[in-house]
Write a structure and sequence with these properties.
It is a single chain. The chain has 89 residues and is mainly α. It has helices spanning 7-24, 31-51, 60-82. Helix 2 packs across helix 3 (60-82). The chain starts with 6 loop residues before the first helix and ends in a 7-residue tail after the last helix. The model has no long low-confidence stretch (mean pLDDT 84).
């Protein structure tokens, strides 16, 4: 995630991205796991964006998109490693 967002914005982005990823992947976990998944997704999305030379993300919405895509990818990989299923625990 870009350093242009503050701490509370980063938390909010993590919560929203984790929630969206939970819905997209049909997982079922709570608020804290949504936050963790969203923050991990932000990290994963940032790495992928830099790897493909995407322009830096600036602002709340751009960071939310990157974090959400990263969170969805993270949950997808996590479920493959854990053997499928509908839960991401």
């Amino acid at each position: 995630m870009d350093d242009g967002v503050g701490f509370f914005s980063m938390i909010l982005i993590g919560l929203i991205a984790g929630y969206i990823a939970e819905r997209v992947t049909e997982s079922n976990h709570g608020l804290i796991k949504n936050l963790i998944v969203g923050l991990i997704g932000s990290f994963v999305g940032g790495i992928i964006a830099r790897a493909v030379d995407a322009p830096p993300t600036v602002g709340f919405v751009a960071n939310l998109v990157v974090a959400t895509l990263g969170a969805i990818l993270f949950l997808f990989i996590w479920r493959k490693i854990r053997g499928g299923g509908r839960r991401a625990d």
